[in-house]
Structures are given as structure tokens and as C-alpha cells.
Amino acid sequence: MKNPSLIAFSIDRKSDIPVFAQIYEAIRRMIVSGALEGGQSLPPSRSFATDLGVSRSTIMAAYEQLVAEGYAEGRHGSGLYVRPIGEVELPSDQVPVKRPAPVPSAKSSPTARLGWPLLYPGVPDMRLFPYRPFARCVARVARASPQSLVMSFDPFGDWSLREAIAAHVAEWRGIQTSAGQVMITAGSTDALEICIRTLMQRGDTIALEDPGYLPLRNFVESQGLAPCWLKVGPHGAEVPPHETAPKLAVLTPSHQFPMGGAMTPDRRRAFLQWADEAGGWIVEDDYDSEFRYAGRPIPALAGFDQADFDRASRVIYVGSFSKIFSNSLRIGFLIAPEALTDCFAKTLSRFGTKASIAPQRALATFMQDGDFYRHLRRVRRIYAERRNAMFDLLRRELGDRVAFDDHQAGMQLVLKLPDGCDDTQIASDARDVGLSPLALSSHFAGDQVEKGLVIGFCAHSPEESAMGIKKLRRVMEGHC
Amino acid sequence: MKNPSLIAFSIDRKSDIPVFAQIYEAIRRMIVSGALEGGQSLPPSRSFATDLGVSRSTIMAAYEQLVAEGYAEGRHGSGLYVRPIGEVELPSDQVPVKRPAPVPSAKSSPTARLGWPLLYPGVPDMRLFPYRPFARCVARVARASPQSLVMSFDPFGDWSLREAIAAHVAEWRGIQTSAGQVMITAGSTDALEICIRTLMQRGDTIALEDPGYLPLRNFVESQGLAPCWLKVGPHGAEVPPHETAPKLAVLTPSHQFPMGGAMTPDRRRAFLQWADEAGGWIVEDDYDSEFRYAGRPIPALAGFDQADFDRASRVIYVGSFSKIFSNSLRIGFLIAPEALTDCFAKTLSRFGTKASIAPQRALATFMQDGDFYRHLRRVRRIYAERRNAMFDLLRRELGDRVAFDDHQAGMQLVLKLPDGCDDTQIASDARDVGLSPLALSSHFAGDQVEKGLVIGFCAHSPEESAMGIKKLRRVMEGHC
């Protein structure tokens, strides 16, 4: 059976969107709009590929995606069929509505991504997000306190959110602080930029982990700072050698990015001692600390500092909501030692603030109501299962090709590649089939580069990840 | 009559909040909470000053503020009385509610400002903002499209807002563009940073207006760029001399910041010619162009570019919602020439995005519904009246001391001071009595500094501004 509309759509080969994804999206739209009905068959991949002038594996990739998301199903020996629409759990934006919605349509840009690509590291599965409970918090704030959606005279952000964050880090990260020391930022990158703008001047030396977070490295370079690279070993980043004399070190002590692994207590103490003796500052980027799947939580360095050192804190703590809300909400925070709050305020007035007030009161409500924590506990359980499934899968599918450590934490892991494999080339070839692992080597700044792939295990179901890993295996077969 | 609670509160002399404002706020809270009732008298300023250990003029300043905001009124010959609460139009956050609101309280940080200080330039009167209509848009989005509050896969922002902005600039600014070229940013400063990060490298020369916008200058300096200062004359900024060879010029052609005045058509054409011949880029910062009080609107340079030059546009247009929503919403935008959209996307992925998705769909709804434009037309009418009142006031109160030009536009104006006046010192002394004019000289980078005060006329009623100008007159008496 040939459905004429199925071959009528045009493929844009110059688009950023892979061809398989364009085909997937065209079919998905027909299913959602009802143009393709439950029970209808999809064309056989071979003839469909000929009709569209693409390779059969491209059609297969599109079909696999549709099956993985529940839009289609295979029937033994007889090809692929559209599943009845009621059985598909759609994101709420896409549920066909009875009467025209009173808000602009959910059309998205022609170049917008369709969703996270498979294996893309460090992102949450936003299909699990409790949109309605959060939207109810937003609606309640809109009713009770409409001003707070638009306006604040406090450059550090909404006071109730700052209180909620102070309570959060006390319970989850062992940090005793007051709301007055909490500053709301436009995500953790904004927080890191504010720290650097406050504490560093052109030409100053800054200690950064190598490998580390790329937007941070890009910002440091754009500011004309001199980076001093800290090698990352099994105990965490190395303490900067005396002669390098950095003014500031940015660390990920709870879960090194991207290698994984926590800094040992001895190394933590050594860093605090360094800061104290050298008069240096430590910025602790605690980007995904909520996700620890075994053992006791590792307290934040900022809390460690308070407990063990009877003197002014030299640690600025940076946290983020991007691992819960995705990075579209753009809400992070920093906790400044009391002695620095005025300096941070001055930076905001010199460079301007970036954090929107719009979601802040609703987020505070969401946290205080407990919906935030219910969601956090739920996804932590789900991600733990996905992590286990991913390790099983890796052992089965790639155990002969890659090595990987289990750090029992976070949202991504590193597949180490044998000598002679080009991780950049593999990552690039993987993109062509809709996967997005990152090349480990691109996270290194110095000469001692390790080759590997950084992949995520949270954003997709075990079935979807299995599809991703199988595709990755095929990509790697051509390389190492 | 002495009210014991009125002398019981403590003044924090180390606080950033001026003493008069602390007294004002303490009394205002008592009125709002009902601790002070309508008809009760406030203590005579002289004895109250003695009780609190402050100067009488400090008490007078607090009382004037209460009168200006309608919390108290003078009765002929018999001091000051609290006005019955029903007569006071309170911001909705502060209306006593019958039952406990289901969202966190509207407490604000101890160091938050109470409102815009008098004469502070370039800010809207947020007491006029239609909070409830905007909140209704937010609530409708929360109901109809809860996902859009949290999540977007498009780094350029919500598509419906980008469409609304494309329609807006077509009608208001004469720019023909498509939503695909519109990028949502965290305010106009973020937009300027993105332009510079995309188009400039360390050591490159950038042309900036002198005087100009301070956060932009601070950013340029922090990036290690070489500024080439463009003198601002009656025709607008001067075209960069050939030998300076800047790659980029940032201009405010519709209304120069901070001097006021529009660039002449000849000068605009000269800039476009420069960009074309030198292969340079122009960033047009159109920060307050909605506010023009007489004559025809001045079309944007970006529109001029399209109309007169039959070639690829070299103008990037930057707009902002901060003049309508205050700068707490942090929503601005840039419009990139089609040839540059990919470069801008790359910048976002290198440095991360800063704009929150949270308010975007609601803002699109607000614009499409027409509430945005109703508000815009209303405040434009009110600001025009305030502008007229301000000029009358200035002629009456300061006509012998300062000079000022009427540019029929914007939200602030410049009071030029005679030789020998120290504008920085005047601005600093003014802050002590609760005023916030800015010193004109601090906006200059080069040697040729003019002295003056930049003051706003939109954020306060004519009565409030009159109070501000009278205070300013007293401050100036000690100086020139």
C-alpha cells in the first residue's frame, strides 16, 4: 500500500537536521494529525528508500525511532504498522485539542531539534517532567502574586527562592548558609562567569581541571586569563603547583566533569589548605550532585570548608537546576561567602544581570510544596535503572571494544577507546545517524589527550539507548 | 501623640538603604498592616528626629515620600496624617489577603531596593504595569501549553515569540525580517555580548560611541578588544576614521545613549556605506525607540539598510523589552542577517544561552492579544505628560543653573552643568537624600568629558519628580 502523502514531502539535504530525523518527523506529524491512522501500514523500507532517493538504513533509522517512541510497531513478518493514537503518550503540547487553544500554537522553528539525540550526555529525560504540577505552581503565583512574575528590585533574585535554595543545600549538600548569600543566576555558566568577573583581572592565572567544561574554558580564554591546567587523576584534580600561583580554581569535586569520580577527602583538604595559604578562591561547580546512586552522598566542598576550617570561607558554591528542568529554564545559583556579597553585587551592576525573575517564585513554590522533591526522587530511581541497563548493554555490545568505570553518580559516563581510534571522527559519523556522543578528547586543553566518548544514559529509555548503542557499535566497526 | 512602635524600630546605618528610606519603609509597613490607622497623625518631624537620633531633613524626606505615594497627607497647619488605607492604590502583592496565599510570601531581601529612587534614568514606572492581564496570559499558557514554560529544543527561543517580534519590528521599526532570524536573548546586554562574541576576536578594533552605555564598555574591555571611540555630535556618532579599521560599530542611531538625539539620515547613510566598503558590521542598539513623543517615528537603521541598499544587510538589530517590563524579565532579542544565523547559533553552543524560556510564550500571547500594545500606548501618553511636566519644572527650578535639550524621545534627559561643577560629587550627595541621577562624565571614555546629570522622567509622577528636583536643587546649591 502506497500512501501518496508519504512520498510527497521534501527532504532538505542542506538542513542541520539529519535526513532520517526529517523522515521520522514527517511521519510522526502525519500520525499525530490523523493523516495516518492506527493500523495503517508503513511502506516497506526498501521501496520507500527508492521512492525518496535515500539509503535503506536511513529509512530504518527513522522507523526505529518511531517504534522506540511508540508511534509504530512491528508485526511479526509483516512490516510496520501505525499504533492507534490513544496508545501513544504524547507530550501535552501535541495532544490534539478540541477547541482552538487561546495561546499561540506550539509550532517550532524549522531548525529546532526534535528532542535530545540518542546518547547525548548530561541531559534529563524531559518526557518525565511533571509539567502540569509545575504549571499549577506558575498559575498559582500568577493569581496570588502577579507582580512577582515581572518585577523585582533585588538584583540577587526572588527572596523566597533564595530561602528555598538555602534550605535545599543545607539538607542535600551539608552547606549552612543564609538566603542573603544566595544569588540567582541564568544557569551555572552565568554563575561561573560572575565568579570570574568578580575575582579575576586580565592576565591573572586561573586553575582549571583538564579535561573540563568547554563553555568555561571558552569564557576564560575570551577574558584573556592565563589558565593553569590541573591534571585529573583517581583522587580528583591535582592541587596547583606553588609557582603557578592561581588566584582561583574552578573544581567539580563531587563528580568530575567529564571523567566522573569524586575527589578524595585528602585532596579536598589539600585544596582548602592551598586556598587558605595562598589566599586563593575555590569555585565549586556542583552541577549534577543530586544524582548519586549508591553509598552516602558526598558532601559539598563548601560544606567541608565550614565544618573543618575555623575561618572565613574561601569556597563559592555554584549549583544548577538544569539537570531537573533542562537548561531552557536558565536558573542556577551561587552561594557567596559573606565577605564577597558586596563584590558580587558590584559585578551585577557593572555587567548587568542575566537571570529572569519570571520562573523564580513558581520554582520556590514547587520546591516548598514538595513536588520538586517527589520528581527528583522519582527520576533518581529511574536514572539508576537506566544506568544499570546501560552498563549491561555496554558489557554486552561494546565490552570488547571500550573500557568504562562505574562512578555510581551523574548523568553520563566515559567510554575509553583503544589507541588509534579517532574519537572526533567517530562522534562526527555518529551524528550522521542521529547519535550525539561527545568526543572526550575535545574536553582536554593540554597535550595529554585521552580518546573516548562521553555518552548520556538518563534522557532515553533503556530500549532507546539500546538502539543508540547498537548504532554506535556499527559506527565504531568502521573505525577501530 | 506618640506611637510607641514608631520609635521602637531600629535604624541600620551600615545598610545600603538610605536612612530616610528605612524610616519611610517602617511607617509604610505599619500603615499597610493596619498598625497605623487612617486619620492617625504622624509625629512632628522635629521631635521624631530627636527621638530617632537623625536629622530633621531625613524625617522630612521620609514624610515627603509617604505623601507622594499617597500613604499620608498634610492637613493645613496641623501636621501629617495617615490616609485611610482604602484610598491608597497598593501594588497587588501588598494588598492584605483574606486567606493565606498558597505561594511563598512576598518578603524581600533586607537589602532589596524599595522602588526606583527618584530621578533614576531610563526605567519605566512599574506601578503602571498591567500585572493582572500579563498574569492571565501566563496562567493561560500554563493551562494550554505547560511544556512551553519549561522546555524548548530551540536555542533561539520560542517560535511564537519570534514570530510576534518579527511582526512587531515590521510595524514599529520598518524592518522586514522572518522569525527564523530573530534570536531571544537575556536582555539587550546579552544580545550585545553575543554579537561581540560572534564577530570579534581578541585584539580586534570595535567602534563605540563616546559617551555610551557602561555595561557594553565594561564587556568590551573585559574581552581585550581595542575600542575606537566615536565622538557624538549633533548629527550622531562620527563615522570611524579609515585608519582605525574597526570590524564592528555599536550604535544607538534612534536615540543616542545617554545624550539623546537621533542620527541624521546623511550620517546613517555614511555608516551603511562604511560598513559596505570596509566589510564592517553595525550593531544597532535600539533600546528605547518605542518612546518618541512628537513627529514621525525614526525608522531603524536596520530598516534603512534594507530599503536603500540592494545587497546583503550588514546591520544586526538589538531590541529589548526592559523599557516595558523593567529589566527583571530579562528578555531582549537580536535580528541577525540571514548570512550570520549559523554563526550566532555556534556562539550559543560555545558559551551557552542565557535567556529563560519561562516567560516567552506568555509574552507572545500578551503581544498577540493586544494587551502589550494597549499598555505601550498608555504609558507613552503618560510619559509624554511627565516629560512636559519635567521640562516645566526644570525651567522653573533649575533654569538658572543647567542647560538641557529637548529631543522629544526616550526616558531620560541630560542636565548640562556649568564649568567647575563636579557631577560625580553631586550625584553622590544626591544619593544620600534618596535621589539617583547619574553623572554624565562617567559615561565618557576619552579625555573630552562633559559634566552633567542624566535623570529619568518616566518612573515617577510629576509630584514625585517635583520633590526630586527640589531636593536636587538643594544638593546643587552646595556645589555650583
Describe the structure.
- 2 copies of one chain form a homodimer.
- The radius of gyration of chain A is 24 Å and the shape is globular.
- Residues 87-102 of chain A have low confidence and may be disordered.
- Chain A has 3 domains: 19-114, Arc Repressor Mutant, subunit A, CATH 1.10.10; 152-356, Type I PLP-dependent aspartate aminotransferase-like (Major domain) (Aspartate Aminotransferase, domain 2, 3-Layer(aba) Sandwich); 391-477, Aspartate Aminotransferase, domain 1, CATH 3.90.1150.
- In chain A, a hairpin with a 5-residue loop joins strand 1 and strand 2.
- The first copy, chain A, is 40% helix and 12% strand.
- In chain A, helix 2 (19-33) packs across helix 4, helix 3 (45-52) packs across helix 4 (56-68) and helix 7 (187-199) runs parallel beside helix 8 (214-222).
- By secondary structure, the first copy, chain A, is of the alpha/beta class.
- In chain A, strands 3-10-9-8-7-4-5-6 form an 8-stranded mixed β-sheet, with helices on both faces. In chain A, strands 11-13-12 form a 3-stranded antiparallel β-sheet, covered by helices on one side. A two-stranded antiparallel ribbon of chain A has the order 1-2.
- Chain A has 16 helices and 13 strands.
- The interface between A and B is large, with 88 and 88 residues.
